[in-house]
Amino acid sequence: MTTFELFFDLVYVFAFTQVSRLMAETHSAIGILQALIILSLMWWTWVGYSWISNQASADQPFLRTVMTLAMIAVFIAALTIPEAYEDLEGGWNGPIVFATAYAAVRIIHVTLYLVVAREDSGVRRQLLIFLIALIPAVTLIFVGALLGGQAQLWLWLAGMIYDLGATWVGSALGRGWRLPSAEHWAERHGLVVILALGESIVAIGVGVAREPVDPFIMLGAAASVVLSVLLWWSYFARLAAAGEHALTARDEYARARLGADAYSYAHFVIIAGIIVTALGIEDAMKHVGDAEPFGWFGATALGAGIAMFAGGTVVFALLVGVRRPIMRAVEAVVLLAALPVLAVVPPLAALVIAVTLTGAIALTESALHRRAEAMRRS
Q1: Are residues 306 and 269 both part of a single domain?
Q2: Least buried of 27, 169, 178, 377, by fewest C-beta within 10 Å?
């Protein structure tokens, strides 16, 4: 992976931060849905450029120049995330600016891909099929931005679902995508998981940035960091390498199909789970010294975020051939079942309970894995 790709991905770190900010400011279920729609739109733009950079080196001057233009558009879209649904007073219309920047990112992507694939008829044909998904989806984003209100929410949701679904069907019909490097693909997605986990670390500090340090903050920070490390372990201890090996073992079409299903699609659930968990951490740290109940909003963000992450790793594990990821499914069920408890205990206790449950499941999974490996060798 080139340093320019890493630099390109940094604009998405800012986008992740803006999505978390939107969730925190709205502090409602609708706000979380709005933010997840924005996250999915931004994720789909990142996915598009990751396919290009796997097929052609981003160190080429032409690719760097065009991807720089895309970075500018991504950054403008990220800047407008806080007013993507409600235009702030003064300046240009926020939803329209977001829709325009988003459309620019998608148009630049398709144009660049056509240039990169100018000698590959299979990819060019696939890109023409891809336009069937792109044009209606972008149109729905623009119409939603123009109408605003509840119509915007549902039109953007419809645009997102149509884009994902039509792209999946079109990819199965066209069979034209290329994924030359399994190592690059796995490494690139592993890096974006790290970047998202960085948001959970930032959330720890955001929650108490202006508070004097005391024992509650120190305990909450320690628990939050341990939780972030557990999420890191859950992905990188077994799954990251298994994904790369599965990609390497497949032929051209099967590799591209697995790359789309296990990474372009399943990884969105993993990233979304991390971002929602970060929201729960931030909410807990803001009130870490309080004796009052954590409440349903923070508890749901914390517990459901971990459960979403775990569910994403289950899907990823099954797709790449990891046998019986039972403990990941158990983790999702246990954290969801624990939501009523997390809601009625103080925020610090909720953090400790979430860390304890996640850690116990990780230890159990590790022990079962070692036992299975010992039995296999014997």
Answers
A1: yes
A2: 377
